Amino acid sequence: MKRGHGGGSALRTGTIVVAMVGSLVAVAWRQPRALDALADLESVRREHEILTAEQVELERRIQRLESRSRVVPEARRRLGMRMPDAREIMILPGAEP
Questions:
Q1: Would the pTM of this model clear 0.70, i.e. be above it?
Q2: Which of 35, 58, 79, 91 sees the fewest Cβ atoms within 10 Å?
Q3: Which are the contacts of 58, defined by CB distance < 8 A and separation ≥ 6?
């Protein structure tokens, strides 16, 4: 049996329709996953910004706590430390480098 021109054309049209529907299904399946990935990425970016700001604040706090203007008064208050008088300073001989 020979097919006429109509059979080949219908087969081509059917193949094209199936391919288009398959493409649409693939896009519809991928789109929610892409949107979820974008939402996750934005969440991670926000968390990174928050952690970076916290790090900057902690570094500032460390600098403030390590500063001489903070350490000296705390050493006096907590440990009773003080600057020695000139008569209390004794220079010991040592080996030269």
A1: no
A2: 91
A3: none
